[in-house]
Design brief:
With 321 residues, the protein is of the alpha+beta class. It folds into two domains: 120 residues, Aminopeptidase, CATH 3.40.630; 132 residues, Gcn5-related N-acetyltransferase (GNAT) (Aminopeptidase), CATH 3.40.630.30. The protein is built from ten helices and twelve strands. Strands 1, 2, 3, 4, 5, 6, 7, 8, 9, 10, 11 and 12 form a twelve-stranded mixed β-sheet that branches. The relative contact order is 0.18.
Length: 321
């Protein structure tokens, strides 16, 4: 179980984008035995489907039993057919679907933590250590908080970063709800890097039990030479080491993004494959997918006025889950 299985994350998705939460469950008396988390996404542009879960790196079914999964899966299919879903998408759960063809494949990178941050630091590559030390030498200062003020500052950087990559930012409402339901309830942390009192990089980490994930990262590209991103990540790792967490996930990565995979490997993280599955409710088969690396309009997003981008994100994201 991770933060993405929580009711707090469900509230963020549902209230941000109008998705209907459907958590198919098995009970043993009054105890929950198994859960398949699903959000119903209804869109005039992209159709109706069930997704487990939208905008979520991985959200495997919560069960250790194949028979329990099969029962939940059949109920989800039955519900989807009644409500005219085109497909059901699972993000994880490959152990229950050994013969299914994945629609997409990603890599995850997870770092095993220690109560001693110095021990973790020693496991980093020399290149990564030098980048962290350079940021310190340049007097980059890192601060952490769960305040809305910090999240607002991060969102400013997020707009810049998404524009640089030719993508609209998530709507502000999403991050405000993320603060209200997750970060402010001791389930997340905002970490910002400052140089000469200017915020130049940041990250939003989410956590539950003893597991943490580096969910969102953003920066002002003009200050990349100071290596603030490296120091932000290191201070996040250090925080979770000192607070009794055992794992730190660096999020998902596309297979073709070799540069990002190499960067994450430099932190000593273990690389694993994540498989997504799409079950077509009309054909009754799992369908393969093709990653679209040339999304239309990406060049246009880099040229649009920055204040316009959050509005486009508001219009776009609820249809893309």
């Amino acid at each position: 179980m991770n933060i993405f299985h929580s009711s707090a994350w469900a509230a963020v998705l549902s209230l941000s984008y109008g998705y209907k939460p459907l958590y198919f469950s098995l009970f043993d008396g009054t105890d929950i035995e198994a859960v398949l988390p699903v959000m119903e996404v209804r869109s005039l542009f992209t159709g109706c489907r069930g997704v487990s879960l939208p905008f979520t790196d991985i959200c495997a079914p919560l069960t250790g039993s194949s028979s329990s999964f099969t029962c939940l899966w059949e109920k989800a299919i039955e519900y989807g057919k009644i409500h005219d879903w085109k497909f059901i998408e699972l993000r994880g759960g490959e152990s229950f679907l050994p013969a299914a063809v994945p629609s997409l494949i990603f890599f995850s990178h997870t770092l095993r933590l220690s109560p001693d941050p110095d021990r973790v630091f020693s496991s980093l590559t020399k290149t990564t250590q030098r980048a962290i030390n350079k940021a310190k030498k340049e007097n980059v200062e890192v601060r952490a908080s769960s305040s809305l003020e910090f999240l607002n500052e991060f969102y400013r950087l997020q707009i810049l970063t998404r524009k640089r990559h030719g993508l609209p930012p998530q709507p502000y409402r999403f991050f405000k709800l993320l603060h209200d339901h997750v970060v402010s309830n001791s389930l997340g942390l905002v970490i910002l890097a400052y140089w000469k009192d200017r915020c130049v990089a940041g990250a939003v980490c989410l956590h539950s039990d003893d597991k943490a994930i580096y969910k969102y990262a953003a920066s002002d590209f003009r200050y990349q030479h100071l290596r603030p991103n490296n120091l932000v990540m290191w201070e996040a790792i250090r925080y979770y080491c000192l607070n009794g967490f055992t794992t730190f996930c660096l999020g998902r990565t596309e297979p073709e993004n070799t540069g990002l995979r190499h960067f994450k490997a430099g932190w000593g993280a273990r690389e694993e494959i994540i498989k997504y599955f799409r079950y077509d409710l009309q054909t009754g088969y799992f369908s393969g997918g093709e990653r679209n690396l040339n999304l239309p309009g990406r060049r246009l997003f880099t040229l649009l006025p920055t204040p316009l981008l959050p509005l486009l994100g508001y219009l776009f994201y609820r249809h893309a889950g």
